[in-house]
Amino acid sequence: MAAGLPHPHRVLLVLALLPSLLRPRAVEMAPTPAAAGSGDEGASALLGLLLRVQSEALRALGPDGFDPKLYVDLPLAADERAAAAALPGQGRAPPSRAELESYLARYFGAAGSDLVAADTPDFEPEPRGFLPRVESPEAREWALEVHALWKDLARRVAPGVEKRPDRHTLLPLPGGVVVPGSRFREVYYWDSYWVVRGLLVSKMYDAAKHVVLNLVYLVEKYGFVLNGARSYYTNRSQPPLLSSMVLEVYRATGDVEFVKGAFRSLLKEHSFWMSEIHNVAIRDNHGQVHNLSRYQARWNKPRPESATIDEELASKINSIADKEKLYHQIASTAESGWDFSSRWMRNSTDMTTLATTYIIPVDLNTFIFKMEQDIAAFAKIIGEKATSEKFLEASKARHIAIDSILWNSEMEQWLDYWLPTDGDSQQGVYQWKSDSQNRKIFASNFFPLWLNAYHSGSAKFADTAKSERVMASLQKSGLLCTAGIATSLTNTSQQWDFPNGWAPVQHLIAEGLLHSGSEEAVKLAEDIATRWVRTNYAAYKATGAMHEKYDVEACGKSGGGGEYKPQTGFGWSNGVVLSFLEEFGWPKHKEIGCSRQGEVGLAGAQSD
User: What are the tens digits of pLDDT across the range 432-464?
Assistant: First the structure.
């Protein structure tokens, strides 16, 4: 059973007949030419109109500072056909700024106006038992300010969305939501895991449950958790962490009924990731065939939220078929959550060389292994022994596959595996080749350490000796910097590359180190957390905001790069800071601002 789970005999189990498992929605091989709507003709017509608005807005305003997502988030305030007929430009001279603004004001509401501020009944300014180990007055004052940001990010979907879905790309959800912030006006999948972690630190158990149940609702409606709660995201998912959210809520509350309510949806999500488009069979050098997973969206057009950007990138490609292949890779990279990074490119300077669907990623298979272990634990709790044993065996098989296909004993890291693009396989089974591992260093190479925090009473994913070797590899990797862990070693101007550091990266690796079994690993975990907390604090004090990402070369500097301006808010950054403060505390006299004290350990490790 996962570490920290209440023992079954301590929880009153109300055994009831569970609803029969619905057959998972069929996943067609990507890409499909259909619109990215929910299947409703009105939603498809709306999206088509919004894409034309987006295009005309670019012509009117120019590319400098242009955000294409703004226009596909606009709620329609009038008849779609009337709005379509009145659209200025449409192939003629570009509309003026005034013409565009007048048109938008007449026919549309403001982006985000179909999400309204929500009450947070379980929010308290200073919850009982909040961060008991944070003794520093400055750290505690700031932590309470971060805690209070949940009120600013809490929303509910306006009633009009469900009544008139043909006027909104926003999808209706049953419960209150917590959005990341800024341009990200809707729920996002993998962001929600760290939002839940933060809400639980804030003792906002009901809010955390609502976040999870909204995602469960999406599974029931679409067969998987969407990238985000917009009609244009129905063609892809994101890193699968729903079972981890259910687990964290259960560990905090002991609510068995909550687990039972989500359980069938977890099985459906697992089936989605086991489907033909995501599954890859590969034979190792001992003749053993393993099954691992990859990202693959069902889409071969420009992403609606970034259509003008994708079209510009593809403009250098002449063939329609080759353009569609590129669009498919772009959407599949967005499914990874790492959009964009040199990790997915054959040529790190050329985005048109994205090849995500030909990569078996370390992190995706780490998350699915965790999903399988979680489902096994949940099945045991609710009395489904056969299902528990089935998923325990599945997790064991994936553990073997990860270590057989992705582990590199020379580098002491897990490496992404690149499949041949010529489809060279025997009856759908690829032959493992050592030179197909990507030997470039990315933070994701160390994510399997996170599994050490959730072993089920049996052996850890990586035993203490192996974890120490991985830790030594991390210390020598060059990823450990002044203000945290860099995403990669290559500065490509992509946001999931150097010098950016991201909250999930810090948390996954630090939590794994913390449970790896050695004092040195615990110290390194705390050092990483300290650096990350300090850079978040310094940036907050300088700007009054929490940021989506940070530059790890300098304490207190927010990150940059990528296809949109840096964002603030920010859901997962808030959640990770609160989680680190709960786990490690902050002593009374420990400096919270930027300081070089204590940085020798990481800097020295890199030069060993």
Answer: 999 999 999 999 999 999 999 997 666 789 999
Length of the chain: 608
350 assigned to active site: no
Looking at the chain, the whole-number percentage of residues with pLDDT higher than 90 is 87
Q: Which residues contact 123 (CB under 8 A, 6 or more apart)?
A: 150, 151, 202, 204, 207
* Active-site residue, 551 included: no
- 199, 571 contact by CB (below 8 A): no
Global confidence as pTM:
0.92
Q: Which two tokens stand for residue 167?
A: 């006027």
Task: Give the sign of the dihedral formed by CA 564, CA 568, CA 574, CA 576.
Answer: positive
Cis peptide before 391, with omega less than 30 degrees from 0?
A: no
Yes or no: say if 284 and 402 are a contact pair by the CB < 8 Å rule: no
Q: How far apart are CA 388 and CA 374, in angstroms?
A: 9
Query: Strand pairing partners for 184?
Result: 181
DSSP category for residue 125: S
Token pair, residue 147, equals 């805690």
Residues 468-489 have a mean pLDDT of 98
Q: At residue 413, does pLDDT exceed 50?
A: yes
For the segment 58-117, what is each residue's pLDDT rounded down to a tens digit? 999 999 999 999 999 999 999 999 999 999 998 789 999 999 999 999 999 999 999 999
The answer to whether 586 and 199 have CB atoms below 8 angstroms apart is no
Question: How distant is the alpha carbon of residue 418 from its chain centre?
Answer: 22
- Concatenating the DSSP letter of every residue in 154-193 gives EEEE-HHHHH-GGG-SBPP-SS-EE--BTTB-S-BTTHHH
In 433-549, where does DSSP find H-type helix? Answer: 464-476, 503-514, 519-543
Residues 518 and 468: beta-carbon distance below 8 Å:
yes
Q: Which of 497, 548, 551, 582 is catalytic?
A: 548
- At 105 the pLDDT is 98
Q: Which of 339, 372, 511, 551 is catalytic?
A: 339
Residue 218 corresponds to which amino acid? L
How many CA atoms lie less than 13 Å away from 444 in the CB half-sphere? 25
pLDDT for 62: 96
Structure tokens, 346: 């054959």
